[in-house]
Design goal:
The chain is of the alpha/beta class and 404 residues long. The protein is built from 19 helices and 11 strands. The chain binds one RNA strand of 83 nucleotides through helix 13, helix 16, helix 17 and helix 19.
RNA sequence: GGGUCGGUGGCGGAGUGGUCAAUCGCACCUGACUGUAAAUCAGGCGACGUAAGUCUACGGGGGUUCAAAUCCCUCCCGGCCCA
């Protein structure tokens, strides 16, 4: 059992950065953290997609702070709840099969381990809610349901809207908040962390913990960061900056944010001190070039997840390939033989989806060899091409290795 | 159980016998431009084929027809209303 630390700086960091609200209040939770009591905290993740993204990183990093403070941290995988599907804004989600869930879960530990520690003397623990939810019987369910009123469910604006517009609302969707809330009961937690989209579910759970265990479950809601395309970042849509992305991709995706996301990006997705961010915000207003700030943000995002060295490399890569349009330092090579067709080579190297796609790319002028456009869709590999760089689109580079 | 509407490409959603590989929007791809992988603009977007064309595809199966996503039969699935 590890010692509880009451480092005020870390505590303030936990209470402030990226936080929308803490229930019942920040002060109450600060007091709790300072009390020396060891708390059990968790965040749940539904395995609806294979990749965690930087939005999840906000919560995971918050868990990491509590881990450092010596508290007991649980990384909950909602393998059972994912089967029901959290009610979406306007659609009923389809239920996932076991295989899909297993597939999506693979690699999560690795992705999350960039921000929390799954080993050491106070390791973050994995749980799966299948363990307890699958055992609930009808009596248990009825008891659970008696804690929440239909009125409260219907109040949820998402349901309200769907009903008004004649969109279907599955009855099982009402059970979702109860199941999520029961997780907290089963694990006897003191706090749950989640995005603001989880507020309703988490507060239902707070009531359940109070009623079943007679104690307070604190709730921290995180502000939500948009994806670079301006929509909400989502595992299902796959539009986020993923924790499993290469540093180069992360950097590039971060640079795709519009300028007005820079400040919130710095606050939510990096470790840059809040005071520093305030300073940048001021500088921003006085008219420094946003590009520099955005690069700084991209750099810091990569640094937080992948480390400083990777961030440096990613930045260099971006400057080279995107800004100067040069060939990057490290290029994967592909083997080919003389007389192979370029088109087929592109397909086998996954630079095009099909031969038709490859031909289209050539016809549209998107394929170059050492900077020279390939015009002929029937072009064949020659021995002169050995060692040259084949480029497809803006950022696909392969070095040709021609076997004699 | 009764009535009714519907199941079309990754998604949304047109299309009701040939001119449909299927309007359009989103997503995606390529190009131009840009501080940016943003925005904008242009083009593309089933597969195979240099092409003519061929094949596969409009919930599943069967049928009518010279010809079906479109008509008929049947099965499966869903919405809404009534009981």
């Amino acid at each position: 059992m590890s010692k509880i630390i009451t480092d005020e700086k870390l505590i303030e960091e936990f209470l402030e950065r990226g936080v929308e609200a803490i229930y019942p209040s920040k002060d109450a939770f600060r007091k709790k953290l300072l009390s020396g009591e060891r708390l059990r905290v968790y965040q749940g993740f539904d395995p609806t997609g294979p990749y965690l993204h930087v939005g999840h990183a906000m919560g995971i990093r918050a868990l990491g702070i509590l881990q450092k403070l010596g508290h007991e941290v649980i990384f909950l995988i909602g393998d059972y709840t994912a089967k029901v599907g959290d009610p979406d804004k306007d659609t009923t989600r389809k239920m996932l099969t076991d295989e899909e869930i297993e597939k999506n879960m693979a690699g999560w530990k690795e992705q999350a381990s960039q921000l929390v520690d799954f080993s050491g003397e106070n390791p973050v623990r994995f749980e799966r809610n299948y363990k307890w939810l699958s055992k609930l019987n009808l009596n248990d369910l009825i008891k659970l349901m008696s804690n929440i009123t239909v009125q409260r469910m219907l109040e949820r604006d998402m349901f309200e809207r769907r009903i008004k517009e004649g969109d279907p609302v599955g009855l099982h969707e009402f059970i979702y908040p109860l199941m999520q809330g029961y997780d907290g009961v089963a694990m006897e937690v003191d706090m749950e962390i989640g995005g603001t989209d989880q507020t309703f579910n988490m507060l239902c759970g707070r009531d359940l913990v109070k009623s079943y265990l007679g104690k307070e479950k604190f709730v921290r809601t995180n502000k939500m960061m948009d994806a670079p395309d301006g929509r909400t970042m989502s595992k299902t849509k796959g539009n986020g900056i993923n924790l499993a992305d290469t540093p180069e991709d992360m950097f590039g995706k971060a640079m795709a944010y519009s300028d007005d996301h820079i400040i919130s990006g710095l606050e939510f997705l990096t470790n840059v001190p809040i005071t520093e961010i305030k300073r940048i915000e001021k500088e921003f207003e006085s008219g420094t070039h946003p590009m520099e700030h955005k690069k700084f943000m991209a750099f810091e995002i990569v640094k937080m997840i992948k480390g400083e060295e990777a961030a440096n490399q990613a930045q260099e890569h971006f400057a080279k390939t995107v800004q100067k349009k040069e060939v990057p330092d490290v290029v994967a090579s592909i083997e080919s033989s003389i007389e192979d067709s370029i088109v087929e080579l592109m397909v086998s190297a996954k630079m095009a989806e099909s031969k038709a796609d490859a031909k289209r790319k050539i016809q549209q002028g998107g394929v170059t060899l050492d900077g020279k456009k390939i015009e002929d869709i029937n072009a064949k590999i020659t021995k002169e091409m050995d060692g040259k760089i084949l480029k497809v689109g803006k950022r696909e580079f392969r070095k040709l290795v021609v076997k004699k």
